[in-house]
Specification:
Length: 146
Protein backbone atom coordinates (compact mmCIF):
# COMPACT_ATOMS: atom_id res chain seq x y z
CA UNK A 1 0.00 0.00 0.00
CA UNK A 2 1.30 3.47 -0.82
CA UNK A 3 2.07 6.28 1.59
CA UNK A 4 1.35 9.95 0.82
CA UNK A 5 4.42 12.20 0.73
CA UNK A 6 4.23 16.00 0.84
CA UNK A 7 7.47 17.96 0.43
CA UNK A 8 7.17 21.71 0.92
CA UNK A 9 9.46 24.71 1.25
CA UNK A 10 8.60 28.28 2.25
CA UNK A 11 7.96 29.07 -1.40
CA UNK A 12 6.16 26.07 -2.83
CA UNK A 13 4.84 22.55 -2.60
CA UNK A 14 7.41 20.48 -4.46
CA UNK A 15 5.78 17.04 -4.19
CA UNK A 16 2.44 15.65 -3.17
CA UNK A 17 2.32 12.04 -4.31
CA UNK A 18 1.65 8.51 -3.13
CA UNK A 19 4.78 6.35 -3.18
CA UNK A 20 5.75 2.85 -2.08
CA UNK A 21 8.66 4.05 0.06
CA UNK A 22 10.53 7.26 0.86
CA UNK A 23 14.15 7.44 1.96
CA UNK A 24 15.14 10.51 4.00
CA UNK A 25 18.45 11.98 5.24
CA UNK A 26 17.74 11.98 8.98
CA UNK A 27 20.07 13.55 11.50
CA UNK A 28 20.97 10.04 12.75
CA UNK A 29 21.35 8.56 9.23
CA UNK A 30 19.20 7.42 6.31
CA UNK A 31 15.60 6.49 7.14
CA UNK A 32 13.37 4.32 5.00
CA UNK A 33 9.66 4.96 5.52
CA UNK A 34 6.84 2.63 4.45
CA UNK A 35 3.09 2.86 5.03
CA UNK A 36 2.27 1.90 8.62
CA UNK A 37 5.47 3.40 10.05
CA UNK A 38 5.30 4.47 13.69
CA UNK A 39 4.74 8.20 14.23
CA UNK A 40 8.01 10.11 14.18
CA UNK A 41 9.29 13.67 14.23
CA UNK A 42 12.90 14.27 13.18
CA UNK A 43 15.27 16.86 11.81
CA UNK A 44 16.69 16.31 8.34
CA UNK A 45 20.24 16.98 7.21
CA UNK A 46 21.40 18.37 3.90
CA UNK A 47 20.91 15.32 1.72
CA UNK A 48 18.88 13.35 -0.74
CA UNK A 49 15.25 12.28 -0.57
CA UNK A 50 14.51 9.21 -2.68
CA UNK A 51 10.92 8.44 -3.70
CA UNK A 52 10.28 4.83 -4.74
CA UNK A 53 7.13 4.17 -6.77
CA UNK A 54 6.90 0.87 -8.62
CA UNK A 55 10.02 0.68 -10.78
CA UNK A 56 10.45 4.46 -10.81
CA UNK A 57 12.81 6.32 -8.51
CA UNK A 58 12.84 10.13 -8.08
CA UNK A 59 15.63 12.08 -6.43
CA UNK A 60 15.31 15.36 -4.57
CA UNK A 61 18.10 17.45 -3.04
CA UNK A 62 17.14 19.13 0.23
CA UNK A 63 18.98 21.66 2.33
CA UNK A 64 17.85 20.29 5.68
CA UNK A 65 14.52 20.61 7.42
CA UNK A 66 12.11 18.55 9.51
CA UNK A 67 9.90 15.56 8.83
CA UNK A 68 6.70 14.36 10.45
CA UNK A 69 5.89 10.71 9.80
CA UNK A 70 2.41 9.33 10.36
CA UNK A 71 1.30 5.79 9.52
CA UNK A 72 -0.29 6.99 6.24
CA UNK A 73 1.58 10.23 5.47
CA UNK A 74 5.04 11.83 5.43
CA UNK A 75 5.32 15.61 5.60
CA UNK A 76 8.71 17.17 4.87
CA UNK A 77 9.25 20.86 5.63
CA UNK A 78 12.50 21.56 3.79
CA UNK A 79 14.70 24.62 4.07
CA UNK A 80 15.29 24.22 0.32
CA UNK A 81 14.45 21.46 -2.14
CA UNK A 82 15.03 20.73 -5.83
CA UNK A 83 14.08 17.79 -7.98
CA UNK A 84 16.86 16.34 -10.14
CA UNK A 85 15.24 17.75 -13.29
CA UNK A 86 15.33 21.29 -11.88
CA UNK A 87 19.07 21.38 -11.18
CA UNK A 88 21.35 22.96 -13.76
CA UNK A 89 24.35 20.62 -13.71
CA UNK A 90 26.78 23.23 -15.09
CA UNK A 91 25.78 25.77 -12.41
CA UNK A 92 26.07 23.14 -9.69
CA UNK A 93 29.56 22.17 -10.91
CA UNK A 94 30.63 25.84 -10.99
CA UNK A 95 29.33 26.36 -7.42
CA UNK A 96 31.24 23.27 -6.28
CA UNK A 97 34.44 24.59 -7.86
CA UNK A 98 33.99 28.02 -6.22
CA UNK A 99 33.43 26.40 -2.81
CA UNK A 100 36.54 24.24 -3.21
CA UNK A 101 38.63 27.26 -4.20
CA UNK A 102 37.33 29.30 -1.27
CA UNK A 103 38.17 26.50 1.15
CA UNK A 104 41.67 26.11 -0.35
CA UNK A 105 42.39 29.81 0.29
CA UNK A 106 42.53 29.12 4.05
CA UNK A 107 39.56 31.34 5.01
CA UNK A 108 39.13 32.90 8.46
CA UNK A 109 37.77 30.52 11.09
CA UNK A 110 34.33 32.19 11.21
CA UNK A 111 33.84 31.79 7.40
CA UNK A 112 34.95 28.16 7.23
CA UNK A 113 31.59 26.60 8.34
CA UNK A 114 29.72 28.70 5.77
CA UNK A 115 32.05 27.60 2.99
CA UNK A 116 31.89 23.95 4.12
CA UNK A 117 28.07 24.08 4.04
CA UNK A 118 28.21 25.56 0.51
CA UNK A 119 30.58 22.75 -0.50
CA UNK A 120 28.19 20.15 0.95
CA UNK A 121 25.14 21.66 -0.79
CA UNK A 122 26.84 22.01 -4.17
CA UNK A 123 28.22 18.44 -3.99
CA UNK A 124 24.72 17.15 -3.24
CA UNK A 125 23.09 19.20 -6.02
CA UNK A 126 25.61 17.89 -8.55
CA UNK A 127 25.11 14.29 -7.38
CA UNK A 128 21.31 14.56 -7.66
CA UNK A 129 21.50 16.33 -11.05
CA UNK A 130 23.65 13.53 -12.44
CA UNK A 131 21.19 10.87 -11.29
CA UNK A 132 18.58 12.00 -13.81
CA UNK A 133 20.78 10.92 -16.72
CA UNK A 134 21.47 7.44 -15.39
CA UNK A 135 18.63 4.98 -14.89
CA UNK A 136 18.84 3.81 -11.28
CA UNK A 137 19.00 0.11 -10.68
CA UNK A 138 17.19 -1.30 -7.71
CA UNK A 139 19.45 -3.58 -5.71
CA UNK A 140 18.44 -7.18 -5.97
CA UNK A 141 19.74 -10.56 -4.95
CA UNK A 142 22.81 -11.81 -6.73
CA UNK A 143 22.91 -15.51 -7.54
CA UNK A 144 26.39 -16.02 -8.93
CA UNK A 145 27.90 -19.46 -9.17
CA UNK A 146 31.33 -19.95 -7.66
Amino acid sequence: MPILVDIVTRDRRLVSDEVDMVTLPGSAGQMGILRGHAPLLSTLEIGEIILHKGNDVRYIAIGGGVVEVRPDKVIVLAESAEQAEEIDEARAAAALQRARESLAENPPRERKPIIEAALQRSTLRLKVARRRSSRPQRPGPSFEEE
